[in-house]
Amino acid sequence: MTLLKDRASERLVVELTDRLRRRQVLGAQQAAIETFHVLRQVVARARFSDIQELLDLVKAAGRRLIAAQPKEHAVGNIVRKFLHLIREEGHASGKLSAPKPSATSSSLADFIRLAPLRAQTHTHGTAGVTSRHPAPHRPADEEDAAIDDEDEDGVVGGGDFKGLLMDGLREILDELETVYENVSKNAKDHIHSDEIILTVGHSRTIASFLSSAHHSGRNFTVIVPETAPSYSGRAMASSLATSGISTVLIPDSAVFALLSRVNKVLLGAHAVLADGGMFAPAGALLAASAARAHSVPVVVCAGQFKLTPTWSAAAPGLEFADPAPVLGFEEGALVEKVDVLNPYWDYVRPEMIDVYITNYGDHAPSFIHRLIKDSYDDEDSDL
């Protein structure tokens, strides 16, 4: 474990690590915001002589937070956003060299961009074509210049670099704080009057999405399973009813029977994986399976900060809660004969999901890996 030199930053990292380990930080958004504040403090108080040293500091703090609660994917996603932003600002300021593309690697964008060159080569031969990737011209003094503008705080580029970095970090915080409003802004385009919608668990994103559609003049009915043994569905039903939405609370055993009368299934996500699958509150797999059997579309609402570069094959296993609410110890004779599982989350496969609604638009599950590639750097996939 790498300790931070700054005592105030080290104390904040230790405090959040302990709270994550004890599950005192509930919800992906809360975990993301608290991780953001800790890492911003680390960056603000950091003393570094080059950009790579700052990256190493953020990685060291981030790895400790991730290790405290590996299944809270939002923590790792915020760490990756910090690293991505630092590299972007470093490249923009010229204080961090851009990575050299591999000679053997290619992308669809490169294939399309080089199509005219391939056509010209095919028509006129290869004479005169000396390079497919001409090197950009750089002045000699730029190449020879050393980064020696360290200020009195030990920061490359002085306050200018940190100022630009802090401006970028404010944008990340704004995204986290307004995620519910941005996901819900187009709710009226997805929910229509007289529809019957089924949702599972108590999700603030889903509650905000449905409330936005209701305030836009849509009249619809929401069916909410109880979601035993946590009974979070009861809290969700109460929240929706308080907002004036017609709500029906049903037992979990009635989900399959009622799906034939439902127009769409609306689910929240704990984490969205690179292959388009997701971890969602327990009970989501039941609803998605029933929806698939009845050909009912499944729509998932999630902030883009929940997108994680982990693939389902490499994702941590499901997390399990106390089994006592399912089968108490008072059933002594039976407890010794069975294994009781009470999962926090279900894994829903990508083929069971029709569309993701994020704060940056609607996306098919097959497009999630592209969004992830644009949001994070490849080298940060495995922290």
Describe the structure.
Helix content is 45%, strand content 10%. The two termini are 14 Å apart. The strands form two sheets. Strands 3-2-1-4-7-9-10 form a seven-stranded mixed beta sheet. It folds into two domains: 7-98 and 146-177, Four Helix Bundle (Hemerythrin (Met), subunit A); 180-380, Rossmann fold. The protein is α/β, with parallel strands linked by helices and 383 residues long. α1 (7-21) packs antiparallel against α2, α2 (28-44) runs antiparallel to α3 and α2 (28-44) runs parallel beside α4 (73-93). The chain has helices at 7-21, 28-44, 51-68, 73-93, 108-113, 115-124, 140-144, 158-177, 179-184, 187-190, 204-215, 232-242, 255-258, 284-293, 332-335, 368-375, and strands at 196-199, 221-225, 246-250, 264-268, 271-272, 278-281, 298-301, 345-348, 355-358, 361-363. Residues 141-153 have a biased composition (Acidic residues). GO terms for molecular function: guanyl-nucleotide exchange factor activity; transferase activity; translation initiation factor activity. This is Translation initiation factor eIF2B subunit beta. One of its GO terms (cellular component) is eukaryotic translation initiation factor 2B complex.
Topology:
Layout: H1 7-21, H2 28-44, H3 51-68, H4 73-93, H5 108-113, H6 115-124, H7 140-144, H8 158-177, H9 179-184, H10 187-190, E1 196-199, H11 204-215, E2 221-225, H12 232-242, E3 246-250, H13 255-258, E4 264-268, E5 271-272, E6 278-281, H14 284-293, E7 298-301, H15 332-335, E8 345-348, E9 355-358, E10 361-363, H16 368-375
Parallel strand pairs: 1-2, 1-4, 2-3, 4-7, 7-9
Antiparallel strand pairs: 5-6, 6-8, 9-10
Region (Disordered): 122-153
Subcellular location: Cytoplasm, Cytosol
Protein name: Translation initiation factor eIF2B subunit beta
